[in-house]
Amino acid sequence: MENKGLRIIKDIGVIAFLLLFPHFIPLPFYSYAIVGFVVIWFILRKEGNTFRDIGLSKKGITLRAFVIGLVSALVWVGFMQLLYIPVIKSLFTVPDYTEYNFIRGDISKLIMTIIAAWLIGGFYEEVVFRGYIQNTLEKKLLKSSTALMSIIITSVLFGFYHWQQDVFGVIAAILGGFFWSNLYKKFNNNLWISIFSHAIFDTITLVLIYTGKFGNLY
Question: Which residue ranges run through the membrane (predicted)?
Fold first, then answer.
């Protein structure tokens, strides 16, 4: 029982570290992602696993995975642009979203931010949340619960990971997390599909922000 308790504490501690470290020990140029990635690699290796066990396999990089990622990203952009933002704006006074205003009218900054979106938003965040956290919840911490419970908790954690945004941005991130968590589960835990979907969504969103056509929510 003691060993089981220690394992639970360790798993919760790693999740807490991955959630809090980037915010409270901000390293330059997104280098916190390197730390987080190494931590996940170390934990997986210690447990006798690799990144393949969380869906990060070379075999998963296929044209089909990319197309699913592209189509799902377009669906999610449509949901945000045509439903979520209009509804929120009709019900509440929404503050202007200014986090990415620096890319407007500056193509070089847009390109650099898109690269960061693929590396951090798409790749790193999906490895952390869908790959590590969702799997840890489903296979270890919440084994007696349904997969849906792990998806919900992962989505909420993903939302609050974006607390630097306003409350409407956090809600949007929770919904996005739920979307990508279900996508990951639906396609047999192929992490590349949620990576492509997330990264393409971010790319389209950044282009819309660049052109001033996405509204005030990210």
Answer: 12-44, 65-87, 107-129, 141-161, 167-184, 191-212
The token duo for 152 is 């919900």
Token representation of residue 111:
């390109």
Do 191 and 56 contact (CB within 8 A), yes or no? Answer: yes
Contact between residue 84 and residue 205 where contact means Cβ atoms under 8 Å apart: no
Q: Residue 216: inside a domain, yes or no?
A: no
pLDDT digits (tens, 9 = 90+) for 86-117: 999 899 988 777 788 899 989 999 999 999 99
Domain count, the chain: 1
pTM of the entire structure?
Answer: 0.93
C-alpha of 31 from chain center: 17
Q: What is the pLDDT of residues 112-163, one digit of tens each?
A: 999 999 999 999 999 999 999 999 999 999 988 889 999 999 999 999 999 9
Residue 19 lies in a domain: yes
Closest CA to 94 of 156, 177, 202, 167: 167
